[in-house]
Amino acid sequence: MIAVNTAKFSLIMIAAGAVVMAFAHWVHVDYLYFASYTILQFIVLATAWNILGGYCGYVNFGSAAFFAMGAYSSVFMHKFFPVPIPVLIVIGALVSGTAGLGMGYLTLRLRGSFFAIATLALAVVLQTLVVNWDFVGGSRGAYIIRPEELEFAGITINYIEYLFFLMLSLAVIALITARTIERSQLGFGFATIRDDELAAEASGVPTLRVKLIATTISGAFMGMAGAPFPYYIGYLQPSSAFGLEYAVNSIAMPMIGGTTSWVGPLVGAILLGSAQQYATVTISSAVNLLIVGLMLVGFVIIAPNGIVGLVQERLRAWRKP
Amino acid sequence: MDISWDLLLNAIAAGLLLGAFYAAVTAGVSISFGMLDIVNIAHPAFVILGSYIAYFFNINFGIDPILVSIVAMPVFFLLGSAVYQVYYLSFEKRGQESLRGLAFFFGLLFVTEVTLILVFGVDYRYVEAAYIGPSIHIGIVDLPLRMLVPCLAALALFSGLQLFVTRTFIGRAIMAVSQDQLALQLMAVDPIRIKRIAFGLSIATAAVAGALLIIIQPIEPSVGREYIGRVFAICVLGGLGSMPGTLVAAMLLGVVESLTSTFYGPSWAPAVSFGFLLLTLAFRPAGLFGR
Amino acid sequence: MTAPLLHVDNISKRFGGFVALDGIELEVMPGERLGLIGPNGSGKSTLVNCICGTLQNETGNVRFDGSDLNGLAAHQRTHRGVARSFQLPRPFHSMNLVDNLRVPLLYTVHARIGPLRSTGDLDARCLELLEMVGLAAKAKHMPRDLTQVEMRKLELARAVAAEPKLLIADEAMAGLSHSEIDDILKLLMRLNERGITIIMIEHIMSAVMSFSQRLAVLVSGKKVADGLPQDVVRDEQVVRAYLGQ
CATH number of the domain at C6-95+150-243, out of 3.40.50.11270, 3.40.50.300, 3.40.50.80, 3.60.15.10? Predict the structure, then answer.
């Protein structure tokens, strides 16, 4: 692998993002903005999941909960005290990050399997709370009227382009964060926990603290991905915010793409996300989800290191004659 | 506060009946999670599958759902054995059961649910049997037969399992494998085979639980998901691997859910079991009767 | 009268109805070599786990180097100078040997004395440790490429990497050949000469007898003997425990 330091990588990613933005602006087709937004959202979710799941080895089944918390914080703020979306993103990060921290504190002292079950429980409890909370719309849902355009410093842009830009920036930030963690001592600590938590603890790694950092960062990014969602979708219902596709995709995309590096969730999100966008239009969304589920099971059994793992093996075999 | 005794007693009675049923659903997870340490979160999916099979044969051939499930048990047993074999070869052997095993079962849960949606659609389905409808009245307490019959069937299933585990050789081997695999091997018993049988058994119980479920309430594919929390909450609260503990915990959960539903409305019911689970995990992970 | 480095003060631990440890009292002086023996299931590993913090004892206290360890997490105890090797080796399987040793260096040694070392120094120290156990040639290999014996040595190296005051070697020699046992014994002696207090848990009597200055015996969760090795092995209770009644 070419050794690229963090600063250089960040610049490359930002440059890549700028290229994507410019291309999108040039093409300027609303439907493509909508479709790509979803894929970018999944890049953030998959990367966030992978920080806790792939790097640390702790499976989170409740990604939808953290995502939805970001979305519902935005709804709450919209009704209570409207602020611009970037602020909502920060609020989403704080809310979901704190939730990640809290839940981690309650359950991370137990085995990994208990944590996973607890995340499932959290998702359902939160959904029930939201369904019964009328201020944010309850089960009826909440409408957020999306403005046509945004005026900022004399420039007017199409609102959907603005949302696309925000999600693109989040994706870039998420990827840079993931890679930076991977190469840092924190990432090293994550890996020891994933490999053997007991041995890590015995070697002096403060495992609880490290795991809490992972759940907080992971939760925060999921909340950030959720914050613009009400504006994107216009009408937010608990069943869509807490939808099963978020839980499955946040797990399937990194596991199919490959959990050991930042590339995996990116590859998984782009491949699966695009395939699903295509499938939802051509086949039913149920069949589409079925395929995701089958792929998840298949990959987990056959290719445990995902697509990235397969490529790495291919490269290794190709290098040694 | 003016509590209507009528309402209260009926809610408790319903809760106890429901609780027994919950115990039947949880029995399988008691085996797979409590004894084999396999987090089979797809168990409710197998239960729902059992429900749909009971539905199919009941609607098309008029066969009693419980009867269908008894015939289905061996099939489910084989299915469970097959699933375990895949699980063992892919994950347990490689020591990667934590992350990938969980993802595997999650995928199974998902695939099952979506397949059922594709085959049966999302409409509610229900079965028809002589005992769905009438109730027995004991004083001011109503005991609907559609809940009483499953309760009795569940208790029968549960006692059967308890006897099996404590009295038969294979049953005790299953208990042994959960405690000391090596010792079992030294006794020339193949632990993998025992675990496969145990897992198959746990899925077989899902067949029966499924039939009972569709007697109690109409079902649609996503109903399984509500049960994940209930099942694991009961398992953890009852202390892993303790059958009597599971029964008590199940009854307790049933009563609390019933009371919540009656006095606060059914939309809060899912939060009860999952809330229970979170609280138990946070404060008393060994459960009420655990080791 | 010097204070003991480790004082296990009336430790008890139960698992449900099963009493694994029953009021264990044990003292280890600084620089001492203590052997801990007992039949299988007598509670030796449980005791180690309670001392190291992997398990929490229900009653009693563990005092180490003048302070109470009760309530401290395992990693905090490692920071204070208690290190152990696991009976069944637990390497970090996704990392090579050098990285395996880097973990205690980064998380324990650095935590204790501050990050004085650069990456180059860290690597040098890792290689030094690997040489000490004879694994320098396999520095860039993965744990799955190691033999059982080599994994044991890696376990010990990792424990030593944490620069402990007290090292607990939990059955580090099981299944080794005579010469390999000798190697480990020499290694432990060298470490002891450098001032590290060592508790050796073993079944191999020859090793324990030649190594220990003092011997303690656990049977069914109770300490039944504690004294000079030659006295302890002649103790009636000990003989009965090992040979049965």
Answer: 3.40.50.300
